[in-house]
Amino acid sequence: MDLMRPLALVAALLAVCAAAAEGFDILQILGKHDEFSQFCKLLNETHLAGDINRDRTITVLAVANGDMGHLTSSHYSLGTIRHILELHVVADYYDEKKLKQLSHGATAASTLFQRSGFAPGMAGYVNITQHRGGKVTFIVDDAADSVKPVTFVKQIESHRYDYSVLQVSSVLSSQEAEAPVAPPAPVNLTDLLSKKYCKSFAGLLAAYTKAFDTINGTKDTALTLFCPVDAAVAAFMPKFKNLTAKAKTAILLYHAVPDYYSMQFLKSNKGKVTTLATTSVAKKDYTYEAQTEADTVTLDTTVTTSTIQATVRDDDPLAIYAVSNFLQPKELFKSKTKDLAPAPAPEGPKKKTKKKPSNTSAAAAPADDEAADGPAADDSADDAADKAGAAPSLLARWITAAATVAAALALAA
Question: Within a 10 A sphere around the Cβ of 116, how many other Cβ atoms?
Fold first, then answer.
């Protein structure tokens, strides 16, 4: 019996470590429960899921399919549905225990609707009240007098002080959130790029229809485009002209991200960025690292480093930023990290062998994914490098988990 208690504690701690490492994905959490499929679908269609995942210290009030009411009908526009769903995202942490231990039995909590800038006064606040018998209710501050509060049903999932997903009995009502939202005006991507900083890049996109159609077809759903300034395009053109047609399309798509990244998000987060080239070119990575140094956002491809110089547009679902250099992927160009690798140790003397005549005609043209200044390493070498780079991070996580478990065992002894 004494042995089982420490083992149970170890298992619990390892589970916590695994959950923290995986991160928070609201669609993945709700996707485990069929009864929230409609709520999950709307979070995805309104792009609110991405904003929820990027936030921290957050509580999502999910509604089951049978309780969604008219929210699933065509009564509201997608913009209005987003505002209503924002009421269900509380900018604070509440799990079942905290709800039932509210100080003074009630509190007012801010929501993502209040933070959106579309909620005047107290319209974006939700009043949470604990009643006798343990019942907990939610009601929006500007709800009409005839509106009944929604009730806490159960806790779905939580990670203490980080995120919590709770079920409530029905959709929250707010006069301001339910107000009609006009659809966004159509955006002409070529005109927008040509007016500010990116005229040369706009010309490149217009010349390569496949890349332009892919990027332009994404701008109305979710798109972040990093366009090199005119001077950067001019400096890169000698290399660009020597690329194959397939590589030219890939490098243009490499500047586009199929998600909306506001400047605020870019400055407060860092990590690997997945591009349209990633989803368009088979068996290729085509990602780069985004990070912030001294309030400057930097994009590092391992071949080149580029910084954001100006904001062309930052309005969900479209963000366009002018960057200092043409982004060059390691899949097409030699990586700086490879060039800095230590030289191999000298080998012993080798026997002289006769050289075979080379086939010059076969080597004359570069392969589809090769650049003028030399091809990148093959896929197997790239995979090995990725695994080598991931090893220290994985080792560090296991060391941290082991230290936590050792401490827990010491306390349990």
Answer: 15
3-state secondary structure of 314: strand
Q: Which residues contact 389 (CB under 8 A, 6 or more apart)?
A: none
Using alpha carbons, select from 105, 91, 103, 161 the residue that is nearest to residue 137: 105
Q: Which residue has the tokens 């899921």?
A: 49
- Which strands, in side-by-side order, build the sheet including 150-159? 89-90, 58-63, 163-168, 150-159, 136-140, 125-130, 106-110
Q: What domains sit in the chain, N to C, each tagged with a CATH number?
A: 22-168 (2.30.180.10), 189-338 (2.30.180.10)
- Structure-token pair, residue 402: 């082991």
pLDDT, tens only, 291-315:
998 889 999 999 999 999 999 998 8
Task: Note whether 248 and 208 are within 8 A (CB).
Answer: yes
**Residue closest to 330 by CA, chosen among 270, 281, 370:** 370
Which of the four pLDDT bands, split at 50, 70 and 90, describes residue 338? Answer: low
Tokens in use for 140?
């929006």
Distance, in Å, from the CA atom of 45 to the CA atom of 37, rounded to the nearest integer, reads 12
Task: Please answer whether residues 376 and 331 qualify as being in contact, where contact means their C-beta atoms are separated by less than 8 angstroms.
Answer: yes
3-state secondary structure of 233: helix
Q: Answer yes or no: are the C-beta atoms of 280 and 210 closer than 8 Å.
A: no
Q: Indicate the pLDDT class of residue 400, thresholds 50, 70 and 90.
A: low
What residues contact residue 151 under an 8 Å CB cut-off, 6+ apart?
135, 136, 137, 138, 168, 169
Q: How far apart are CA 413 and CA 411, in angstroms?
A: 6
Grade residue 402 by pLDDT with cuts at 50, 70 and 90.
low
In 3D space, the residue among 47, 49, 80 whose CA is nearest the CA of residue 62 turns out to be 49
Neighbours of 75 (CB within 10 A): 11
Q: Are strands 58-63 and 136-140 parallel, antiparallel or unpaired?
A: unpaired
Gap between the Cα atoms of 12 and 36, Å rounded: 27
| Secondary structure of residue 146 in the 3-state scheme | coil
Q: Exposed, middle or buried by CB within 10 Å (0-12, 13-18, 19+), for 35?
A: middle
pTM of the model: 0.55
At residue 387 the predicted structure's pLDDT band, cuts being 50, 70 and 90, is: very low
What is the average pLDDT across 11-23? 40
Neighbours of 207 (CB within 10 A): 11
Question: 187, 212, 217: which is closest to 202 by C-alpha?
Answer: 212
